[in-house]
Amino acid sequence: MPQDEPWDADASREIARSGPGRPPAGFYSAVPDEAEARDPDADEPDQDDEAGEEEVEVVPVRRQLSLAIAGFAGLLALGLALGAQTSAPDYRAPFAIVLFGVQVLYLLAWTMALHPPAPGPTAGVCVVVALVSDYLAVSRTPAGLFPLVLVVLAGFVAALAGQLIRPEDRAKAKDSWRITLIIVSGVAAYAIPLILTRQEVGTQVVVVSAVGAGVALLVARAADAIFPKPRIAPQVPRGATGVVLGAMLGTLAAAALGSVLVLPFTPAKGAVVGLIAAVVASLVDLAVNFDEAGRRLAGDAPTFWVARHMQGPLGAFALTAPFAYALAHWYLQ
Length: 333
What we know:
Blueprint: H1 9-18, H2 33-36, H3 47-54, H4 63-85, H5 93-114, H6 119-139, H7 146-163, H8 167-173, H9 177-189, H10 192-196, H11 202-226, E1 231-233, E2 236-239, H12 240-258, H13 267-298, H14 305-330
Antiparallel strand pairs: 1-2
Region (Disordered): 1-56
Keywords: Membrane, Transmembrane, Transmembrane helix
Transmembrane segments: 65-85, 91-109, 121-138, 144-165, 177-196, 202-223, 243-265, 271-291, 312-332
């Protein structure tokens, strides 16, 4: 039939051909040509942003600080060696006083660094542990290590009991019992040189192990101030050259000292004692540096700077003492 209106079927078909992007249902679903011609690199991540995210912060090595730590380690080793050498049967009180001062330094440094729950009661218990350990090491007959083990266990239980008093400390005590054990054990470990001075060849073992560990730490820290390369880790301001060189020179110094001491010491036995002391001290010192770097990367509050820098040498000599006792009883005798 004829259609008089101008909007006929042919006009509709022409309009449909001129707008192919509009579907019959009336919804616009076609993608514009401009979107098809968009930049192909738009979805790719910016390479500069990736490089910034993957870049690792390199902690600089401070020369004066490394030299200061080296001097502190050397003075600590000299004090332990001279104190053991000048200790006599009726004249051990000065050495005990020196060791008590070192125990207090260890307690302050490691408590500030590790942040145990209820730091006040924990520190008070550790002071009592230090006094009792020194007293037993000087006065108990026969001199042995077993009383110190009992003191450590009693102090550990007392420190945990003090941490369970307040609810906020009680929630942390379950996860931080290792920290409490490390602090209590380290404080009591400094009484071991007193016990060794009362035993056969014990004084010589204290001197040789203190010299080996002290030279290792002194050389390692001094080398970091001069040539801190290759870096052990970007976040740790230590160089592998100093660590290796310190262990070697610490062993050499202990071997030279063993050649002038009386039997059963020989250069070979002195080298063995010095090597073990140097390796243990170096590993503890490095572990403290890695722990500090981990806290810094985790965003924790930095440790008080004096405690942070004294923690390594103090922990190194604390762990060296049990190894010296074991060598004196199972290797030299």
